[in-house]
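Mods, move this if it's the wrong board.
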Amino acid sequence: MESLMEKIILNVDESFKGKRIDVFLQNNISDKSRAFIQKLIDDKNITINSKICSKSSLKLKGNEIIEVSIPEEIPKEILPENIPLNIVYEDNDIAIINKPANLTVHPAQDIISGTLVNGLLFHFSTLANIETDKIRPGIVHRLDKNTSGLIVIAKTNIAYEKLIDKFKTKDIRKTYLAICKGNFKDKSGRIENLIGRDPNERKRMAVVEINGKPAISNYEIIDEVQDFSLVKVNIETGRTHQIRVHMKYLNHPILGDDTYGSPSKLANRQMLHAYLLEFSHPITDEKLKIFGSLPDDFLDVAKKLKLDVNKIKENGDI
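Not the wrong board. Structure tokens:
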């Protein structure tokens, strides 16, 4: 597999005319040194108006579009670790894990232990791409570290390829549950827009007008009390932080989300759980409908707020 690249797109207005590109990029990409930027240029990882930039000293003309590709750093050897996993489904080709919050999915940079992948290497004798992808063997899609819930794992390469195709063609239905701040004016709705890097904070995502990717979320209110709502969200796309960004966009950030909302004494992480996966098995074509039970912290917060989680079962397909 190709090394994962972080893509950053920057629009240069006329106020930066005459500024060196390496200086501009150092000021607009967080936590990267000028030497790092210059190496990206030397490695042909930066384009200006779709043409490769080859000189760190190049002067900007203004009104350019710069695309920066940042290769993922390859961590040291990833070792198996006996991390408890809640395996809710398993056969010869795939497994489905109900991931707890505070568990990173795969190693990256200086994080080489304590991840889901470390646990997968311990618990499973076979994983997809184990010879070619030391960082993400078996990983088909991801959940944020502090989002709990279902994640499907490929144990064979053919299962991996077919699952990737199913995600691309939207043949895997993913349903989440969230506790959001406030009460929604519309009790159901569809959010369809573009999500890209927040131009004001590169580590966050945001709804943008340009330089983003299409993102579609469908939501429905399951229960509500004063100031809080229990929300079901079905996503048709899988953009980074999509549900968290979309709830912020609606002015109903997820409770406990200190990136897209604010810290809360009620919850020490975002109250977001991947609750349901529905898809046809990549090898047998069997119809699968897998539920991931709600974690204790989610249930505790719902109980404190007097949100009725029993209404989840009353709500159609859940």
